[in-house]
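Workshop exercise sheet. Pairs work together: one partner reads the sequence aloud, the other fills in the structure field after running the prediction. Swap roles for the next sheet.
Pair: D.N. / O.F.
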Amino acid sequence: MSNPIDRLDRFDGYLRQDPDNTALAVDAFELALSLGLHERAGAYLDAAQASAGDAPYLAYRRGAWLAAQGRWDEALALQQALCQRYPDDADLAAAKASLLHYAGRHDEAEADWSALQASGQLPDHAWANRLRTLHFLGRLKESLALAGMRADLLRTQPEAAGVLSLMAVDVGDFAAARLWSDLALAGEPPSLEALTARGALALAIKDAPGALAALAPVVQARPNEGRAWSSMGIAHLLLQDAGAAQAAFLRATALMPEHIGSWHGLGWARLLGRDVAGAAMAFQQALELDRNFGESHGAVAIGLALAGQHDEAEHHIALALRLDPASLSARFAQAVLSGALQNPDELQALALRALRGVEAPDGRSLADWIRT
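Structure field:
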């Protein structure tokens, strides 16, 4: 198989001989864009538009080029102009809805998707992004029910199947998650969402190496995928690798500062690494995000108990157990207050047992409750 850069260089040679060959310039643009070579892709697109003018298919590609650089407002303005020129073009309408989704304007995207679906004009290729919007909006059961009605179509679409596999994980239907991920991973390239789902399925059975194997290509391809980093942090915790877990959770909390579970994971990783002060800071951040989550009160109580602030620790333990009688972190804090932990080694040993879920009071593993 030829090197893609070599192919681009050959395109350059052909275009020097035939500079008005719009089709050739478009092919070169598509390849450069797929390689993330935005400046080079823009030059090919400029060449194509110089010879073909304001052709709609080139304006559409200009929007894709802008979107690839995160220039959402410019991309949307261009796409909206195209939709106004061609109001009956469902592909253009779907492209606009996709842009709205990736620009973070999910309610607007859903309004467009709903209109397309209600009119029976939703293109088959648009189902993956249509489902992604519903996923972001938390409409998981609705999405899975919709998928059941369109199962014959979606089974032939690996990208959409990958989205569905992650949705199934989020509703706790692991059998469906495995089914959809199998379908998604049969395609090329492998679905990153399906690999993320596989990582979660591995964590559910405490297969930390399996989880890391599934998640590594996800963070390599999408280094800003906070969910995958958080799951990798859990896997490293289960492997008792406090340093790797801290690194993964620090990345996750930077990318998803509102995700309580990642702050809990960071706190436990620091506790496992005997950084009590750092653990307390992470647990406090989790509590600031939601003061009605029992595990956060229990986790803060651990830091207070280890700092010798017994009255404050008792207060948070009581709140934790009122909110969640099975709170793992509250039981841990009680063990600290009772004097069951006499030295750092004992603290670390109890943290390990709690993290692996072997002797947790409610039988849960970290992976069960860190999803919040």
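Discussion prompt: The radius of gyration is 25 Å. What would you look at next?
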